[in-house]
Amino acid sequence: MESTTLPPLTTKFIQNPKLSRRHASQVVGSDGKGKIMFSDVVVTQPREAFRGRKWNAGDIVTAVAVAAMHLLCVMAPFTFNWRALWVAVGLYVVTGLLGITLSFHRNLSHKSFKLPKWLEYTFAYCGVQALQGNPIDWVSKHRYHHKYCDSERDPHSPIEGFWFSHMSWLFDGEIIIKKCGEQSNVRDMERQAFYIFLRTTYVIHPIALAFFLYALGGLPFIVWVMGLRIVWVYHITWLVNSACHIWGNLAWDTGDLSRNNWWVGILSFGEGWHNNHHAFGYSARHGLQWWQIDMTWYMIRLLEIIGLAIDVKLPIPAHIQRMAFPPKT
Fold first, then answer.
1. Which partner from 14, 22, 86, 199 sits 20 to 30 angstroms from 219, CA to CA?
2. Distance CA 295, CA 251 (A)
3. How far apart are CA 224 and CA 59, in angstroms?
4. Does residue 157 contact residue 149 with C-beta atoms inside 8 Å?
5. Crossing angle of the two packed helices 82-91 and 229-241, in degrees rounded to 10
6. In Å, what is the CA distance from 322 to each residue of 6, 72, 248, 290?
7. What distance in Å separates the CA atoms of residue 202 and residue 325, rounded to the nearest whole number?
8. Contact 179, 143 (CB under 8 A)
């Protein structure tokens, strides 16, 4: 297993000089107005995502799709069967673990390891079926989040409100452009025809899956496998953006609001060890302690053992020492 030096993408204090430890201390630990419940995080720049602005076509389509998935969930008690439940659980693992956390996040966003192209593309396609956007758009926003974390240019920070960081930022495409600029941080993916194809044809793939599932199991499969499963993965992913910047423990001196949150870690296949991740963004392993359950890391390690994952990156000793808090006197 090879450890490498810190890639430019994750060198936070070089990339994001506006966010210093002093800035973070001004946001955390204040007793001022706007403190988020059960937390010391203060909303310093509250943002209204729904009123007082123009909605473009993309915002409307996103909001309608998210609302439709939630409305399907209302029918879940009336359409339950065990077959639909187990297919939903299976696709939760396939799209959530293999698609979002392993592919979109650790492989494509942070390049924590390398896969053969056929397997990289297969896992990325699994992520498309989570209905969280095409890989290029997802990765671009996430890289901007790390570059500008918890500053005024972060696409989704709780300093603008819990619900904004959790989901309502998704419905304001213009704010991402204003904060981050155009997508100039995904040139590596835009050079690959497969990802351009997924961006161009993105909407077709979940619709095709819905037709297939309806043919396989009728309305219960639409409700449970398309509706409930997608909404479940939605909120677990969104909790990493919101809850893991509000509630939890600080293990490393990252200078942002990222926290290690054990219950999000369990639900999100290891993504909840978020302070670990912000300290060592290049690391394929987020649960750095033996007791920090990280299902995505276990899968990556298995792929490495069988020779499919290579160049698997882990925190290097010098970086561990640099990110540690000074000893208490």
1. 199
2. 20
3. 25
4. yes
5. 40
6. 12, 48, 22, 21
7. 43
8. no
Poorest-pLDDT segment among 99-103, 109-113, 158-162: 158-162
The tokens for 5 are 């030096």
By the 8 A CB rule, do 205 and 93 touch?
Answer: no
Rg of the chain, C-alpha, whole Å: 20
Question: Which among 178, 180, 173 is positioned nearest to 148, based on CA atoms?
Answer: 180
CB 41 within 8 A of CB 246: yes
Lowest mean pLDDT among 58-62, 231-235, 258-262, 296-300: 58-62
Q: Which amino acid is at 8?
A: P
User: What is the distance between the alpha carbons of residues 324 and 49, in angstroms, rounded to a whole number?
Assistant: 37
- Cα–Cα distance, 131 to 233 (Å, whole number): 9
Q: Are 274 and 248 in contact (CB under 8 A)?
A: yes
The first and second tokens of residue 253, run together, are 């001196």
Domain boundaries, the chain: 10-322
DSSP string, 81-99: -HHHHHHHHHHIIIIIIII
SS3 track for 138-150: HHHHHHHHHHCCC
Q: What would the pLDDT profile of 180-196 be if each residue is shown by its tens digit? A: 988 899 999 999 999 99
Q: Position 295: which residue type?
A: M
Q: Which tokens go with 91?
A: 């696709």
284-292 — which CB contacts under 8 Å span 24+ positions?
284/106, 284/112, 284/113, 284/312, 284/313, 284/314, 285/314, 288/315, 292/260, 292/262, 292/265
Judge contact between 120 and 107, C-beta under 8 A. Answer: yes
Residue 309, both tokens = 């994952």
Evaluate if residue 96 carries a pLDDT over 60. Answer: yes
Contacts of 60 (CB under 8 A, 6+ apart): none
